[in-house]
Structure formats: C-alpha cells, structure tokens
Design brief:
alpha+beta
Length: about 220
C-alpha cells in the first residue's frame, strides 16, 4: 500500500474527519457576542465637533426630558377623557380632599329634587366591617343590601331639601355614632325605588373618585 493510499480516509474509519464541516468556521459564543455588539447601532450621540452642534445636542436632551415629564400627565388627561370626567372637576376633587378632607357633589333626581353625596372616611369602612361581623348575613343579597345601606348613610349629605350633618375629626365616638344613626334612619325610610336610584348614583360617584385618584395623581395638579 502506497503512502498516498494510506492517507485516504477509509469507509468506517471515524478517527479523523473526511472533510471540513461548515460549522467548523462558526465563531465561538464570545466572538459572536462581540460581533453582534459591533453591528448594533449606538444610541449615544457622537461628541460635538463645534459649539453649534453641542448646543443642538443640549436642546435635544432638554426636549427628551420634557417629553418624559409630560407623558404621565398626558396619559392621565386621556384617561379622564375616556371616562367623561372634566379636568377642572378632577382638580376640584383632589383639592377638596386634600384641603377639607372630603368632596361632595349634588345630583338631580328629578326636575325639582336633588341629593348630595359625600366621600366617606376610613371609620365608615371600619363601621361597615364591624356590622358585617356582628350581623353575619348568610346570603350575598343580604350582604349587598347591608353594604349599600351603610355606605349610603355614610355618604348622604342632603336629600329632598333635608341637610344631614357629619362629625368633625375631633368629635368623640358618641357624637360620630349619633350623626350616623340619624342618616341611617333617613336612608331606611327611603322608598325602595328611590333607594335603588340613589344607590346607583353612589356607585357611579365612588367609581369617579377612584378614577380621579389613580396612582400618581398628586403630580398632575
């Protein structure tokens, strides 16, 4: 056997590759990452070559910062518009809550009758939870009725020409409970159809307040 014949690969001989594989030319993972990084466009601005170019770059940076600052505000305005909430009304809600601790709004029930609803306090939530624990309603309908009745009594500022009063922050528990019981009695005396109407108004009122007070609202006013 000649030397050249011995160098030729034989069938079944896997000790050396017969041909060079295409993947043998593939770069290593490190080399591939470096090549990819070189091909990617850079967002960084090139150093300015003149004072005019430096000033233009400064103006561009200032514009980008202003856009980043305005975006949340523009999104909030669009959010209010989608819910048909006036920006001025939203500003009033936030201002009243932060200044007076509550916001109230008057709604028409008919051409001659109105009712005024007011935002609730945390102690109203605690009162409702306590009532739930004590009364333990067995059915969902009973639970919903109890919640609607207590929330309405905690929010009813005026109805049919009658004004109802709310306690001051420093009033004692006895006066707080007395004023709530007066409003609760008025709610329980409402005609059933009107109770449903006012309950629906209160639900929409609560949704509006929650929408206006979405996270980040303080930065918008």
């Amino acid at each position: 056997m000649t030397a050249k014949a011995a160098e030729r690969p034989r069938l079944g001989d896997f000790t050396r590759p017969s041909t060079k594989r295409p993947q043998d030319n593939d770069p290593s993972p490190e080399e591939a990452a470096a090549m990819k990084k070189e091909d990617e466009p850079s967002d960084a601005l090139l150093p300015p070559e003149s004072p005019e170019e430096a000033e233009a770059q400064d103006r561009l940076k200032l514009y980008e910062q202003m856009q980043d600052t305005m975006s949340p505000i523009e999104d909030y305005k669009k959010y209010l518009a989608e819910l048909d909430i006036d920006e001025e009304n939203a500003a009033t809600i936030v201002d009243d809550l932060m200044t007076h601790g509550f916001y109230e709004e008057t709604f028409k029930l008919s051409k001659t009758r109105t009712c005024t609803l007011r935002t609730r306090e945390h102690r109203d939530t605690v009162r409702l939870q306590t009532a739930m624990q004590i009364q333990r309603p067995l059915f969902q309908d009973s639970m919903n009725e109890l919640q609607a009745r207590y929330n309405m009594a905690a929010s009813l500022g005026a109805y049919n020409g009658e004004t109802y009063y709310f306690p001051e922050p420093k009033d004692d528990a006895e006066k707080v409970d007395k004023l709530f019981d007066e409003r609760l009695k008025a709610v329980e005396c409402l005609p059933a159809p009107l109770f449903s109407v006012v309950s629906l108004l209160l639900s929409k009122f609560d949704q509006k307040i929650l929408a206006v007070l979405r996270p980040g609202v303080a930065e918008n006013f």
